[in-house]
Amino acid sequence: MKHAALCKRLGYQFLQPQLLQRALTHRSYSAAHNERLEFLGDSVLNCAIAKYLYDTYPDLPEGDLSRLRSNLVNQQTLAILAQQLNLGEQLLLGEGERKSAGFRRPSILADALEALFGAVLLDAGFMAAEKVVLGLYVPFIVQTDLKTLGKDAKTLLQEHLQSRKLALPQYHVAEIKGEAHAQTFVVTCEIAQLGLVSQGEGTSRRIAEQIAAERAYQQIKETQ
Amino acid sequence: MKHAALCKRLGYQFLQPQLLQRALTHRSYSAAHNERLEFLGDSVLNCAIAKYLYDTYPDLPEGDLSRLRSNLVNQQTLAILAQQLNLGEQLLLGEGERKSAGFRRPSILADALEALFGAVLLDAGFMAAEKVVLGLYVPFIVQTDLKTLGKDAKTLLQEHLQSRKLALPQYHVAEIKGEAHAQTFVVTCEIAQLGLVSQGEGTSRRIAEQIAAERAYQQIKETQ
Questions:
Q1: For residue A72, what pLDDT is reported?
Q2: Class for the domain spanning B153-223
């Protein structure tokens, strides 16, 4: 079967494989694309995660539950989980999106994963979809520090340095590569008092800074 | 049974009446209040309505489905449905909220109704909660013009007058009653070319204007 590996990783066999096919179809590929399924899947995801958080954290007030959930269902987390599933390889993308590496773009990956959840809901109902959602999310939640979830790497790094009364990191654009419409930014993050310089690359300065900050933060954590 | 009438209107009998009790408890009344249930219920509501709209409108694109849903799950619609259930009478409110007529406040009513949906989810699972949600919403959806849903009365009135090339209505504050902390505004809405004047009362000028516009719009519709 074409999507056997994906179904195995999802822990779910579709009764109606055409739903899976549709969940994997980006609007650039066909009019029979996944956006309506994404709408449905987004709501299943929200509900499954809400129930899980409600049950798992009986003492957390509503505001904290909301904050946790919104950090779990955001594009960034969805894209990470989609990458774990190698979802990008299975996507049906139009030629333009394929050439511009759309199968790696977080928004496309996140949308397709939501569409997958919607497809399972249609295929076998809420409980089946909830099981698929939690099968992916619970391992992620368990290994994630919920206190830091949703804070970006620059914020985490800055808070850590402040807690040690160290000066803030300095970010510099070291290089801009590629043509105007497809540039790659190389940014360094320097923490002089720790003698630490890290580097990040990304399609924008902001992304490159975040990656550099993430690497600096990891290095500090490892040497502590 | 204490809440027999409410349960009958909901079409649902609680296996665990303490969940119903909690859903009806505002934070001003007790620390065992309904806010966590509201968090849960909000997500069930979203999911049940998403599934209903997906199934009912197979040709609507994702953007329209999202817009429809957000207009159905907003505070205004929830408060209307809560009023139909006479939910206000059943709420457990602290003394301050009782004295300031909190049982009529849209936000308190809407939150309690969401909490009720959450309570049904915990009591008997997603399908039971979905059934309660749709039992309330489908009659509302069926009688609502989805094209105008989410547009406020002033907007609808203005669009209607513009389509007939008539001048816009004039709103005037006719009276402000009551003491400073509990004022009631009386606003008139005049459409000179139709010789029509309507009036609205509310706790703010904005609300009074909307009510006056709603009445003018109804009058125009009835005489057409």
A1: 92
A2: alpha beta
